[in-house]
Amino acid sequence: MPAHGDLVEIRLGPRRAWMVCRPELVHQMLMDSRTFDKGGPQYDRLRLLMGDGVVTCPHGEHRRRRRLLQPAFRASRVADHIGLMAEEAEAVCRSWRAGERIDVSAQMMTLTTGVMSRVLFSDSLDAATAAEIRHCLAAVVRGLFVRTVVPVDAVFRIPAPANRRYRHAVARLHAIVDRLIAERRRGGPRDDLLGTLLEAAHGGAEAGITEQEVHDHLITLLLTGVETTALCLASAFALLARHPEEERRLHGEVDAVLAGRGRPGPDDLPLLVRTRCVVTETLRHSPPGWLFTRVTTRETVLAGRRLPRGTTVLYSPYLLHHDPASFPEPDRFLPERWMPGGTGAAAHGAMIPFAAGSRKCLGDTFAVAEATVALAGIAARWRLRSRPGPAEPPRPAVTLGPRSLTMTCEPRTRDRIGPPSRAGSPAARTAVASPVPDSRTAASSLPDSRTAASPVPDSRTAGDPGVDDA
Q1: Which of 209, 316, 397, 445 could in theory staple to 200 by disulfide, Cβ–Cβ 3.0 to 4.6 A?
Q2: How far apart are the C-alpha atoms of 250 and 290, rounded to whole Å?
Q3: pLDDT tens digits for range 210-220
Protein backbone atom coordinates (compact mmCIF):
# COMPACT_ATOMS: atom_id res chain seq x y z
CA MET A 1 0.00 0.00 0.00
CA PRO A 2 2.73 2.61 0.74
CA ALA A 3 3.71 2.42 -2.94
CA HIS A 4 0.31 3.92 -3.76
CA GLY A 5 0.66 6.92 -1.46
CA ASP A 6 0.55 8.14 2.13
CA LEU A 7 -3.24 7.81 2.33
CA VAL A 8 -4.65 4.99 0.19
CA GLU A 9 -8.30 4.46 -0.66
CA ILE A 10 -9.59 0.93 -0.13
CA ARG A 11 -13.01 -0.74 -0.06
CA LEU A 12 -14.55 -2.73 2.76
CA GLY A 13 -17.35 -4.29 0.77
CA PRO A 14 -19.44 -1.31 -0.37
CA ARG A 15 -17.75 0.99 2.15
CA ARG A 16 -15.04 3.43 1.19
CA ALA A 17 -12.17 3.74 3.64
CA TRP A 18 -8.66 5.18 3.81
CA MET A 19 -5.47 3.44 4.98
CA VAL A 20 -2.81 5.67 6.58
CA CYS A 21 0.65 4.47 5.52
CA ARG A 22 3.12 6.88 7.15
CA PRO A 23 4.10 6.90 10.86
CA GLU A 24 3.86 10.69 11.14
CA LEU A 25 0.31 10.69 9.79
CA VAL A 26 -0.71 7.82 12.05
CA HIS A 27 0.56 9.76 15.07
CA GLN A 28 -1.23 12.89 13.87
CA MET A 29 -4.44 10.87 13.77
CA LEU A 30 -3.94 9.09 17.11
CA MET A 31 -3.02 12.26 18.95
CA ASP A 32 -6.30 13.88 17.85
CA SER A 33 -8.78 11.40 19.30
CA ARG A 34 -11.50 14.05 19.34
CA THR A 35 -11.46 14.21 15.53
CA PHE A 36 -10.46 10.58 14.86
CA ASP A 37 -12.61 8.74 17.38
CA LYS A 38 -12.91 5.01 17.98
CA GLY A 39 -15.30 3.85 15.32
CA GLY A 40 -15.68 2.23 11.93
CA PRO A 41 -16.73 -1.37 11.24
CA GLN A 42 -14.23 -2.84 13.72
CA TYR A 43 -15.45 -0.88 16.73
CA ASP A 44 -19.08 -1.07 15.67
CA ARG A 45 -18.78 -4.86 16.07
CA LEU A 46 -16.70 -4.65 19.23
CA ARG A 47 -19.25 -2.33 20.81
CA LEU A 48 -21.97 -4.94 20.37
CA LEU A 49 -19.74 -7.35 22.27
CA MET A 50 -18.03 -5.15 24.88
CA GLY A 51 -20.60 -2.45 25.41
CA ASP A 52 -19.09 0.92 26.25
CA GLY A 53 -15.95 -0.22 28.07
CA VAL A 54 -12.72 1.74 28.08
CA VAL A 55 -11.72 0.41 24.64
CA THR A 56 -14.92 1.09 22.73
CA CYS A 57 -16.49 4.07 24.50
CA PRO A 58 -16.64 7.38 22.57
CA HIS A 59 -14.13 10.17 23.17
CA GLY A 60 -16.37 12.08 25.55
CA GLU A 61 -16.63 9.16 27.98
CA HIS A 62 -13.09 7.86 27.74
CA ARG A 63 -11.25 10.06 30.23
CA ARG A 64 -13.59 9.24 33.14
CA ARG A 65 -13.53 5.51 32.46
CA ARG A 66 -9.80 5.37 31.95
CA ARG A 67 -9.11 7.21 35.21
CA LEU A 68 -11.07 4.55 37.08
CA LEU A 69 -8.96 1.67 35.71
CA GLN A 70 -5.57 3.40 35.39
CA PRO A 71 -4.36 2.84 38.99
CA ALA A 72 -4.55 -0.95 38.53
CA PHE A 73 -2.01 -0.77 35.70
CA ARG A 74 0.52 1.68 37.14
CA ALA A 75 4.13 0.51 37.43
CA SER A 76 3.87 0.00 41.19
CA ARG A 77 0.83 -2.25 40.81
CA VAL A 78 2.42 -4.14 37.93
CA ALA A 79 5.39 -4.89 40.21
CA ASP A 80 2.96 -6.32 42.76
CA HIS A 81 1.72 -8.76 40.10
CA ILE A 82 5.13 -10.08 38.99
CA GLY A 83 4.89 -12.92 41.49
CA LEU A 84 1.54 -14.19 40.24
CA MET A 85 2.73 -13.89 36.62
CA ALA A 86 5.71 -16.11 37.47
CA GLU A 87 3.48 -18.56 39.35
CA GLU A 88 1.16 -18.95 36.37
CA ALA A 89 4.11 -19.49 34.01
CA GLU A 90 5.50 -22.17 36.32
CA ALA A 91 2.10 -23.84 36.69
CA VAL A 92 1.64 -24.07 32.92
CA CYS A 93 4.93 -25.83 32.19
CA ARG A 94 5.11 -27.93 35.38
CA SER A 95 3.33 -30.87 33.76
CA TRP A 96 5.35 -30.87 30.53
CA ARG A 97 7.45 -33.96 29.83
CA ALA A 98 10.66 -34.29 27.81
CA GLY A 99 9.91 -35.00 24.17
CA GLU A 100 6.22 -34.22 24.54
CA ARG A 101 4.44 -32.33 21.78
CA ILE A 102 2.41 -29.48 23.22
CA ASP A 103 0.00 -26.94 21.82
CA VAL A 104 1.98 -23.83 22.68
CA SER A 105 -0.84 -21.51 21.67
CA ALA A 106 -3.23 -23.25 24.04
CA GLN A 107 -0.68 -23.28 26.85
CA MET A 108 -0.01 -19.55 26.52
CA MET A 109 -3.76 -18.88 26.59
CA THR A 110 -3.95 -20.91 29.79
CA LEU A 111 -1.16 -18.80 31.26
CA THR A 112 -2.60 -15.41 30.33
CA THR A 113 -6.13 -16.42 31.35
CA GLY A 114 -4.75 -17.40 34.75
CA VAL A 115 -2.96 -14.07 35.16
CA MET A 116 -5.84 -11.89 34.03
CA SER A 117 -8.48 -13.81 36.01
CA ARG A 118 -6.44 -13.37 39.20
CA VAL A 119 -6.02 -9.65 38.56
CA LEU A 120 -9.72 -9.23 37.84
CA PHE A 121 -11.33 -11.78 40.16
CA SER A 122 -8.64 -12.94 42.65
CA ASP A 123 -9.14 -16.70 42.98
CA SER A 124 -12.82 -16.77 42.01
CA LEU A 125 -12.37 -18.85 38.85
CA ASP A 126 -12.28 -22.63 39.14
CA ALA A 127 -10.48 -24.70 36.48
CA ALA A 128 -13.67 -25.52 34.57
CA THR A 129 -14.76 -21.87 34.35
CA ALA A 130 -11.27 -20.76 33.27
CA ALA A 131 -11.28 -23.40 30.53
CA GLU A 132 -14.71 -22.28 29.34
CA ILE A 133 -13.56 -18.67 29.19
CA ARG A 134 -10.58 -19.69 27.06
CA HIS A 135 -12.75 -21.58 24.60
CA CYS A 136 -15.29 -18.76 24.43
CA LEU A 137 -12.59 -16.17 23.77
CA ALA A 138 -11.16 -18.29 20.95
CA ALA A 139 -14.58 -18.59 19.31
CA VAL A 140 -15.27 -14.87 19.66
CA VAL A 141 -11.95 -13.84 18.12
CA ARG A 142 -12.50 -16.17 15.17
CA GLY A 143 -15.89 -14.67 14.49
CA LEU A 144 -15.11 -11.00 15.03
CA PHE A 145 -12.80 -10.49 12.08
CA VAL A 146 -15.18 -11.74 9.43
CA ARG A 147 -17.94 -9.64 11.02
CA THR A 148 -15.66 -6.63 10.68
CA VAL A 149 -14.83 -7.04 7.00
CA VAL A 150 -18.22 -8.35 5.82
CA PRO A 151 -20.71 -5.50 6.32
CA VAL A 152 -23.82 -7.60 5.63
CA ASP A 153 -25.56 -8.48 8.90
CA ALA A 154 -27.95 -10.91 7.25
CA VAL A 155 -25.05 -13.33 6.66
CA PHE A 156 -24.55 -13.69 10.41
CA ARG A 157 -28.20 -14.36 11.15
CA ILE A 158 -28.04 -17.60 9.19
CA PRO A 159 -28.01 -20.53 11.68
CA ALA A 160 -24.71 -21.88 10.33
CA PRO A 161 -22.42 -23.76 12.77
CA ALA A 162 -19.87 -20.92 12.94
CA ASN A 163 -22.60 -18.36 13.68
CA ARG A 164 -24.11 -20.57 16.39
CA ARG A 165 -20.68 -21.05 17.99
CA TYR A 166 -20.08 -17.32 18.00
CA ARG A 167 -23.45 -16.43 19.53
CA HIS A 168 -23.10 -19.17 22.16
CA ALA A 169 -19.59 -18.00 23.10
CA VAL A 170 -20.71 -14.38 23.47
CA ALA A 171 -23.70 -15.38 25.60
CA ARG A 172 -21.58 -17.62 27.86
CA LEU A 173 -18.93 -14.92 28.41
CA HIS A 174 -21.57 -12.43 29.52
CA ALA A 175 -23.27 -15.02 31.73
CA ILE A 176 -19.99 -15.97 33.44
CA VAL A 177 -19.14 -12.34 34.18
CA ASP A 178 -22.63 -11.69 35.55
CA ARG A 179 -22.32 -14.74 37.80
CA LEU A 180 -18.94 -13.63 39.14
CA ILE A 181 -20.30 -10.16 39.90
CA ALA A 182 -23.32 -11.63 41.72
CA GLU A 183 -21.13 -13.99 43.76
CA ARG A 184 -18.85 -11.15 44.79
CA ARG A 185 -21.79 -9.06 45.95
CA ARG A 186 -22.80 -11.92 48.26
CA GLY A 187 -19.26 -12.27 49.58
CA GLY A 188 -16.76 -9.89 51.11
CA PRO A 189 -14.68 -7.19 49.37
CA ARG A 190 -11.34 -8.13 47.78
CA ASP A 191 -8.39 -6.16 46.52
CA ASP A 192 -8.82 -6.84 42.81
CA LEU A 193 -10.27 -4.99 39.85
CA LEU A 194 -13.76 -6.34 40.40
CA GLY A 195 -13.59 -5.02 43.95
CA THR A 196 -12.48 -1.60 42.67
CA LEU A 197 -15.32 -1.47 40.17
CA LEU A 198 -17.97 -2.50 42.69
CA GLU A 199 -16.72 0.10 45.14
CA ALA A 200 -17.01 2.72 42.42
CA ALA A 201 -20.54 1.55 41.61
CA HIS A 202 -21.46 2.23 45.23
CA GLY A 203 -20.17 5.81 45.01
CA GLY A 204 -16.74 5.17 46.51
CA ALA A 205 -13.59 5.67 44.49
CA GLU A 206 -15.37 7.05 41.42
CA ALA A 207 -18.99 8.03 41.86
CA GLY A 208 -21.23 7.71 38.85
CA ILE A 209 -20.21 4.34 37.39
CA THR A 210 -23.22 2.23 36.51
CA GLU A 211 -23.82 -1.48 37.02
CA GLN A 212 -23.61 -1.97 33.26
CA GLU A 213 -20.23 -0.26 33.17
CA VAL A 214 -18.89 -2.74 35.74
CA HIS A 215 -19.91 -5.56 33.43
CA ASP A 216 -18.58 -3.85 30.29
CA HIS A 217 -15.17 -3.13 31.84
CA LEU A 218 -14.71 -6.76 32.90
CA ILE A 219 -15.71 -8.10 29.47
CA THR A 220 -13.35 -5.60 27.82
CA LEU A 221 -10.36 -6.53 29.97
CA LEU A 222 -10.96 -10.24 29.47
CA LEU A 223 -11.17 -9.89 25.71
CA THR A 224 -8.21 -7.56 25.33
CA GLY A 225 -5.92 -8.78 28.11
CA VAL A 226 -5.78 -12.49 27.41
CA GLU A 227 -5.39 -13.40 23.76
CA THR A 228 -3.03 -10.66 22.64
CA THR A 229 -0.34 -11.49 25.21
CA ALA A 230 -0.79 -15.22 24.56
CA LEU A 231 -0.27 -14.66 20.82
CA CYS A 232 2.83 -12.57 21.53
CA LEU A 233 4.33 -15.39 23.63
CA ALA A 234 3.46 -18.08 21.07
CA SER A 235 5.03 -15.98 18.32
CA ALA A 236 8.15 -15.41 20.44
CA PHE A 237 8.72 -19.14 20.97
CA ALA A 238 8.13 -19.84 17.28
CA LEU A 239 10.61 -17.12 16.26
CA LEU A 240 13.24 -18.24 18.78
CA ALA A 241 13.03 -21.81 17.49
CA ARG A 242 13.79 -20.55 13.99
CA HIS A 243 16.68 -18.39 15.24
CA PRO A 244 18.85 -20.62 17.48
CA GLU A 245 21.51 -17.95 18.01
CA GLU A 246 18.95 -15.55 19.46
CA GLU A 247 17.59 -18.41 21.57
CA ARG A 248 21.09 -19.15 22.89
CA ARG A 249 21.59 -15.50 23.86
CA LEU A 250 18.24 -15.42 25.63
CA HIS A 251 19.06 -18.59 27.57
CA GLY A 252 22.42 -17.15 28.58
CA GLU A 253 20.81 -14.07 30.07
CA VAL A 254 18.05 -16.02 31.82
CA ASP A 255 20.59 -18.43 33.37
CA ALA A 256 22.79 -15.55 34.56
CA VAL A 257 19.97 -13.48 36.04
CA LEU A 258 17.82 -16.20 37.60
CA ALA A 259 20.81 -18.26 38.74
CA GLY A 260 18.88 -21.50 38.84
CA ARG A 261 15.69 -20.00 40.24
CA GLY A 262 12.63 -20.88 38.18
CA ARG A 263 10.55 -17.82 39.03
CA PRO A 264 11.59 -14.30 38.07
CA GLY A 265 10.87 -11.71 40.73
CA PRO A 266 10.34 -7.95 40.61
CA ASP A 267 14.06 -7.32 41.15
CA ASP A 268 14.92 -9.52 38.17
CA LEU A 269 12.82 -7.64 35.66
CA PRO A 270 15.28 -4.74 35.08
CA LEU A 271 18.07 -7.31 34.54
CA LEU A 272 16.23 -9.23 31.81
CA VAL A 273 17.26 -6.73 29.15
CA ARG A 274 17.66 -9.13 26.23
CA THR A 275 14.49 -11.00 27.22
CA ARG A 276 12.62 -7.71 27.05
CA CYS A 277 14.18 -7.04 23.64
CA VAL A 278 12.93 -10.41 22.39
CA VAL A 279 9.41 -9.42 23.47
CA THR A 280 9.75 -6.02 21.81
CA GLU A 281 11.03 -7.47 18.54
CA THR A 282 8.22 -10.04 18.56
CA LEU A 283 5.70 -7.21 18.92
CA ARG A 284 7.36 -5.48 15.98
CA HIS A 285 7.67 -8.57 13.78
CA SER A 286 4.31 -10.17 14.65
CA PRO A 287 2.06 -7.60 16.37
CA PRO A 288 -1.11 -9.30 17.71
CA GLY A 289 -3.06 -6.09 17.14
CA TRP A 290 -2.39 -5.59 13.44
CA LEU A 291 -5.25 -3.48 12.06
CA PHE A 292 -7.43 -0.77 13.63
CA THR A 293 -10.09 1.67 12.51
CA ARG A 294 -11.07 5.20 13.40
CA VAL A 295 -13.91 7.40 12.19
CA THR A 296 -13.87 11.15 11.71
CA THR A 297 -16.26 13.12 13.91
CA ARG A 298 -16.04 16.24 11.76
CA GLU A 299 -14.63 17.31 8.42
CA THR A 300 -10.85 17.37 8.53
CA VAL A 301 -7.74 17.27 6.37
CA LEU A 302 -5.19 14.44 6.48
CA ALA A 303 -2.21 14.12 4.12
CA GLY A 304 -3.63 16.99 2.08
CA ARG A 305 -6.93 15.19 1.48
CA ARG A 306 -10.22 16.51 2.77
CA LEU A 307 -12.13 13.83 4.69
CA PRO A 308 -15.83 14.43 5.41
CA ARG A 309 -17.42 13.64 8.75
CA GLY A 310 -18.02 9.90 9.19
CA THR A 311 -15.04 8.77 7.08
CA THR A 312 -13.53 5.41 8.08
CA VAL A 313 -9.73 5.61 8.46
CA LEU A 314 -7.52 2.59 9.10
CA TYR A 315 -3.96 2.13 10.31
CA SER A 316 -1.89 -1.01 10.64
CA PRO A 317 0.92 -1.56 13.16
CA TYR A 318 1.98 -4.51 10.99
CA LEU A 319 2.40 -2.22 7.98
CA LEU A 320 4.38 0.37 9.94
CA HIS A 321 6.53 -2.25 11.68
CA HIS A 322 7.50 -3.80 8.33
CA ASP A 323 8.41 -0.58 6.55
CA PRO A 324 12.11 -0.84 5.54
CA ALA A 325 12.43 2.93 5.83
CA SER A 326 11.90 2.58 9.59
CA PHE A 327 13.22 -0.94 10.19
CA PRO A 328 15.96 -2.22 7.85
CA GLU A 329 15.46 -5.88 6.94
CA PRO A 330 11.95 -5.74 8.40
CA ASP A 331 11.16 -9.42 7.89
CA ARG A 332 14.17 -10.54 9.93
CA PHE A 333 13.83 -11.27 13.65
CA LEU A 334 16.53 -9.08 15.22
CA PRO A 335 16.15 -8.41 18.97
CA GLU A 336 19.46 -6.54 18.75
CA ARG A 337 17.51 -3.61 17.30
CA TRP A 338 16.29 -2.82 20.79
CA MET A 339 19.53 -3.27 22.72
CA PRO A 340 21.23 -0.04 23.87
CA GLY A 341 22.68 1.60 20.78
CA GLY A 342 20.51 -0.47 18.45
CA THR A 343 18.62 0.88 15.46
CA GLY A 344 15.14 0.36 16.89
CA ALA A 345 15.16 3.40 19.16
CA ALA A 346 15.65 5.73 16.18
CA ALA A 347 12.42 4.43 14.63
CA HIS A 348 10.33 4.48 17.79
CA GLY A 349 7.67 6.60 16.11
CA ALA A 350 6.88 3.71 13.77
CA MET A 351 6.64 1.22 16.64
CA ILE A 352 3.06 1.37 17.89
CA PRO A 353 1.83 -2.05 19.04
CA PHE A 354 -0.18 -0.33 21.78
CA ALA A 355 -1.34 2.73 19.78
CA ALA A 356 -0.54 6.26 21.00
CA GLY A 357 -2.16 9.36 22.41
CA SER A 358 -4.96 9.44 24.95
CA ARG A 359 -6.39 6.14 23.67
CA LYS A 360 -3.08 4.31 24.05
CA CYS A 361 -3.52 0.92 25.68
CA LEU A 362 -3.60 1.43 29.44
CA GLY A 363 -2.19 -2.08 30.00
CA ASP A 364 0.96 -1.75 27.89
CA THR A 365 3.38 -1.90 30.84
CA PHE A 366 1.45 -4.82 32.33
CA ALA A 367 1.47 -6.76 29.05
CA VAL A 368 5.20 -6.30 28.43
CA ALA A 369 6.03 -7.29 32.01
CA GLU A 370 3.79 -10.37 31.78
CA ALA A 371 5.35 -11.50 28.50
CA THR A 372 8.88 -10.90 29.80
CA VAL A 373 8.30 -12.80 33.04
CA ALA A 374 6.56 -15.69 31.29
CA LEU A 375 9.23 -15.95 28.59
CA ALA A 376 12.04 -15.97 31.14
CA GLY A 377 10.29 -18.40 33.48
CA ILE A 378 9.59 -20.93 30.74
CA ALA A 379 12.97 -20.51 28.99
CA ALA A 380 14.74 -21.18 32.30
CA ARG A 381 13.29 -24.70 32.24
CA TRP A 382 12.48 -25.62 28.66
CA ARG A 383 13.56 -25.29 25.05
CA LEU A 384 10.70 -25.48 22.56
CA ARG A 385 11.49 -27.07 19.20
CA SER A 386 9.50 -26.57 16.02
CA ARG A 387 8.17 -29.57 14.18
CA PRO A 388 9.90 -30.44 10.88
CA GLY A 389 8.78 -28.60 7.79
CA PRO A 390 8.13 -24.97 6.95
CA ALA A 391 6.00 -22.89 9.27
CA GLU A 392 2.70 -21.87 7.76
CA PRO A 393 2.25 -18.10 7.80
CA PRO A 394 -0.57 -17.10 10.15
CA ARG A 395 -3.81 -16.02 8.58
CA PRO A 396 -5.37 -12.89 10.02
CA ALA A 397 -8.32 -12.73 12.36
CA VAL A 398 -9.21 -9.75 14.52
CA THR A 399 -5.75 -10.44 16.01
CA LEU A 400 -2.66 -11.91 14.37
CA GLY A 401 -0.57 -14.86 15.52
CA PRO A 402 -0.32 -18.67 15.67
CA ARG A 403 -3.44 -20.23 17.14
CA SER A 404 -2.48 -23.91 16.96
CA LEU A 405 1.29 -23.87 17.25
CA THR A 406 2.59 -27.32 18.22
CA MET A 407 6.18 -27.71 19.41
CA THR A 408 8.28 -30.33 21.17
CA CYS A 409 9.57 -29.47 24.65
CA GLU A 410 13.07 -30.36 25.82
CA PRO A 411 14.33 -29.78 29.37
CA ARG A 412 17.20 -27.30 29.50
CA THR A 413 19.03 -28.62 32.57
CA ARG A 414 21.29 -30.81 30.47
CA ASP A 415 22.57 -27.99 28.25
CA ARG A 416 23.85 -25.85 31.11
CA ILE A 417 27.60 -26.28 31.51
CA GLY A 418 28.86 -25.72 35.04
CA PRO A 419 27.03 -23.92 37.85
CA PRO A 420 24.79 -21.05 36.82
CA SER A 421 26.09 -17.53 37.35
CA ARG A 422 24.75 -15.63 40.33
CA ALA A 423 22.86 -12.40 39.89
CA GLY A 424 25.96 -10.48 40.94
CA SER A 425 28.19 -12.11 38.32
CA PRO A 426 29.87 -10.09 35.55
CA ALA A 427 27.20 -11.28 33.10
CA ALA A 428 24.41 -10.10 35.36
CA ARG A 429 26.18 -6.82 36.07
CA THR A 430 26.49 -6.27 32.33
CA ALA A 431 22.75 -6.71 32.03
CA VAL A 432 22.19 -4.22 34.85
CA ALA A 433 24.40 -1.67 33.15
CA SER A 434 22.29 -1.78 30.01
CA PRO A 435 19.22 0.44 30.29
CA VAL A 436 15.89 -1.26 29.79
CA PRO A 437 14.06 -0.09 26.65
CA ASP A 438 11.21 2.27 27.40
CA SER A 439 7.87 0.45 27.41
CA ARG A 440 6.44 3.17 25.26
CA THR A 441 8.68 2.01 22.41
CA ALA A 442 9.23 -1.55 23.55
CA ALA A 443 5.88 -3.03 23.01
CA SER A 444 -3.13 -4.58 22.39
CA SER A 445 -3.22 -4.78 23.49
CA LEU A 446 -4.78 -4.62 25.99
CA PRO A 447 -6.91 -2.86 23.36
CA ASP A 448 -7.49 -0.49 21.37
CA SER A 449 -7.34 -17.42 26.80
CA ARG A 450 -6.73 -22.98 27.20
CA THR A 451 -6.03 -26.36 28.42
CA ALA A 452 -3.43 -28.26 30.39
CA ALA A 453 -0.60 -29.90 28.45
CA SER A 454 -1.74 -32.88 26.47
CA PRO A 455 -0.67 -34.76 23.35
CA VAL A 456 -1.70 -32.99 20.17
CA PRO A 457 -3.45 -34.86 17.34
CA ASP A 458 -1.26 -35.53 14.31
CA SER A 459 -3.69 -33.65 12.08
CA ARG A 460 -2.44 -30.33 13.44
CA THR A 461 0.39 -28.59 11.68
CA ALA A 462 2.94 -26.22 13.12
CA GLY A 463 1.78 -22.64 12.86
CA ASP A 464 -1.77 -23.53 11.80
CA PRO A 465 -3.83 -20.57 13.08
CA GLY A 466 -6.93 -22.73 13.30
CA VAL A 467 -9.40 -20.14 12.03
CA ASP A 468 -10.80 -22.01 9.02
CA ASP A 469 -14.32 -21.81 10.43
CA ALA A 470 -14.23 -18.06 10.94
Answers
A1: 209
A2: 26
A3: 889 999 999 99
